[in-house]
Amino acid sequence: MTGKIFFLLTFLLMTVDAHCQVAINTDGTGPHHSAILDVKSVSKGLLPPRMTSEERNAIVTPADGLIVFCTDCGPAGTGSVSVFMAGAWYLLGACLEPLTPSSGNHVALVNLIVWNWNSVTGASGYKWNTLKDYSSAIDMGLATTKTETGLAPNTAYTRYVWAYNACGNSAPVTLNQATTSSSSCGQPMMDSRDGKIYNTVLIGAQCWMAANLNAGVKIAGTTDQTNNGIVEKYCYLNDEANCNVYGGLYRWNEMMDYTTSSNSNPSERQGICPTGWHVPSDDEWCQLETFVEPTALCHASTVAGCKVREAGTSHWASPNSCASNLTGFTALPAGHEDFGSFSGLNTFAKLWTSLDYYEDGALCRFLEYNTPGLTTGYASKSNASSLRCVMD
Question: Which pTM was predicted?
Fold first, then answer.
């Protein structure tokens, strides 16, 4: 026995060169100059450590290049060689496990969070969970966003997302976000009907949307909006891109959702506004107008228009004189539609009230690029104009 051990030690020493390279073989040849360890055989292989995916994933801070044989990581639970690279385990073979996705920019409101994450190459889908548990996660397909509702205000939440493909799943990315305070004016709000998000602004005691409503299905300006249970909108020049900037254009009856006129404060007419919001009455516009310009009587303001128009000439025509948007109302010049003809983009805004003026007309508020006031007038109910909703 002693002789055999001596022979083995002598054999190994003979195969270790001066640079501490090691060769393991049966023919006595030295290691290749490029290898620190050179294993050669024509009848046997190299067997790395064998372990389950749970055991593999429990390895603490594995080094890049670490190799194990995972007994259940391959397709349909088969075994596969796993290599750790760039923070994730990969399977050698026909395909690789995807990398861990990174967190995106989330949108938080009072009672909901829109979770977002970034796509990764090689993923065939993603799973999302409130728990750090892949087995019970919700399959999101290729979607990289998840809207979670029914959350508590002003509360921090943590969620998890995995990428997966036929070879397995990535490690989870941790998503963190808090909902906003229950005092929601000044915070963005989301229209649950279509997911569109609007900024809001507190002006005096009123909470207004800081953008024109853009809800509904676009129809051609030559087609009538009708009482068919579907919110329909016109987009200036029939271009959806204009709706995305300036909001939709609505005929009065469509905007009122075919309800009756009102001039109470609040109007108690939701119209086509989102739940929790309503069409402003003339009296509610007066409340805004006299708060912005306290020295003026309603319908007689001289500078209120300057304080509610968006400043500059990105959207308003030059000179857009005196516009400061001090209120944050950010009025934009959407123009209007009149029996299929569009006019006024960049030069005027016409905003509906819930009060009809006569059988075929209703009161509006007007803003113009070269006029400082917030003027009052009436428009034909068959013209399509903008709607700015106010909170209930």
Answer: 0.60
